[in-house]
Every structure is written in C-alpha cells, then in structure tokens.
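Protein-glutamate methylesterase/protein-glutamine glutaminase
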Amino acid sequence: MPVGPGTFGELKRPTGIGVKRVLIVDDSHAIQRLLGHALESDPRLRVVGIAKDAYDAREQIRNLEPDVVVLDVEMPRMSGLDFLERIMRLRPMPVVMFSSVTQNGSDAAIRALALGAVDCVAKPNMGITRETLGDLADRVFAAANAGVLKPAPLPTESTRKLARDAVPSGRPPRHAILIGSSTGGVAAVEIVLRGLPADCPPVVVAQHMPESYLESFAIRLNGLLPQVVQLAEHGMPLKSGHIYLSPGGHAHTGVNFEKGRFSTVAIDAPKRNGHCPSVDVLFQSAVGFADRVVATILTGLGKDGAEGMKQLRSAGAYCIGQDEASCVVYGMPRAAADLDALDEQLPLNGIADAIVSAADQRAGKRIAG
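Tokens:
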C-alpha cells in the first residue's frame, strides 16, 4: 500500500529534492513498521509504500517509482530472490535485501548480491528492533544513490571443467594479484575473476561483508570459476590458479613474500576505516615487494584501500581502478584517483585483461633482468 508522511510517527515532511523514496517489501506487519520507523527517522529518506509480497510490490514499483527497494528474502507466493531476478531483468533499480544470518540466509545473501542487489542487511540474531537495525538508514540511502550492475552470464559446466583441468600445480608464482571491493563488489569481483585465465597468479581478495557471508561467497565462486577458491588462513602458501578470500572476523588478511614464495598473513588489528577485512591492510602488507604486485580497487563506499594503493604504486606496483561509469558506488576508486594512486581507470569488463597484461609485462621484465 502507498503510505503518506507521518505513517510511522510524527514526522510529516514533504518529499523534497534529494530525499529518496523507499518501498518496503516484507510480509510481516511488525517488520514493516520497524523498518518504516528506522528509515523515516532519517530526513534523507521517505517510505512511500509497503508491499506484502512480490506481486503487490510489482504494482507499487510501477505506480510509485521508488528510488530504492528494501526486499525480504523469505516471502510467500514468490521468493525475494526470484523477484529480485525479475527486477534486474525487466526494470533494474537499487535493491537492499533483508536476510537472516543462518547458512541458508548467507547463501541467499550472496546470490542476491551476485544478481545485482546493492547491499544485503543481516537480520540481527537477538531479534529485530529499532536499536538492532543500526546503520540501516545509511545503507539504504547509499543504495538509493548507487548504480545497478547487470550480472554476467554464468560459465557452462563444460567450460569450467576444461579450465579447471588446465590449472598447473607446484610452480611458485612470481607475482600476486590483490583486489579490494565493497558495495556492489560481489558481482564486480565475479566479473573480474571470470576474466582471468585458469592458471593466473594467486589472487587475494578483501571484500567488505559480514563474516557469516564470506564462506558462502567462497563456495559460490568455487562452483563458478576454474580456479580453486578458498578462505585465507594464516601461513597459507599462495599458488597459481588459486583465489583466496579474506575471511574477516577479528583478523585482517595480508600477504608476505619471503625466500621466493608468497604466503598469507593473518593480522590481528582493530577495524580499519570501519572494516575487517580492510583493503588498506591488505595493500599495505605488500608494499615491501610491490614490484611483484598488480592491485585493483573496485566499487565501494568510502575510501578503504586508497592510502594503501598509493603506497603500493609509489613502491612499484601496477594499480588499476574501476571507472565511475561502471561502479555501483564510485567511492573507493575515486578516493584512490584523488590520491594519484592509479596507473589507469577502466570499465569493469576491461579490468581482467589489464591485470593479465600487467602481470605478463612484469614477468617479462623480471626474466629479461
């Protein structure tokens, strides 16, 4: 149903310039009201409608033209994921998913982000109250200002099998690829990784997301890509044809290079720029052997990774940033560009080729030298 000003309390302000229109889609009346109160308490947001299921939401999207949709994963008649897929195919727009923190909820959250959802908010374990919703309004406002990334087509099973069979083993890699991303990063990281060859140098990824989601992300990527994908652990030797995701939690992930071999390092430190894993921590860990690194900073809110990338570039790494037009949120790459930390900025679909080219050129120089 459409709602008017004051529905969720005494706030009675008009929708003005810059105020973002929100549609809530959830079958629970209690959750509808809690979400409504949490969002309407922010003067930048206005809840213009509430839908009880996907069919109701479809009509309200058409009639109300919201700037952003907050969509529950579990709903009657049509699941939130199925509805999200239809939205992205027929009328792409910013969507924030609302998901449980169970394993099934984590799997659903990763699938939603891969389908093109801008963000996924975990339902608090201790129950949903106005207090436990935390930074929901900030995240919904950021999503309303974000772009929408269309997911890439999935590789076929035969392509995955042939490519995985081609991955070599036992040869110490000469270079490492480091990737940092945040909002919009699940789909962006997938697109970049799909463009890398099966025998690519080892890749270490710091993606901002709840710890409970990262295992699901690794499982998803492992099913899509020819490379072996796993969560990083302290002291893991880095191998060609392998991708390592920083697991987050209470430790950041860094990279070490000693006696001709790369390995992962767990770095026990407070959140950096509000995040664990932090992109800055990952990038700064590699400054001592920067000439062996190709670093990429992708879509994301804030500036995490910008300072680390500046240090990497100054020390000899090749640094690539995603361009504004292809970013869901042009925050982290913009911050890196503002610090003159990038060798080039590219659209998302050109980044994988640039990574491969930079790694090949560095390998050639090292052999020639």
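The two ends are 69 Å apart (CA to CA).
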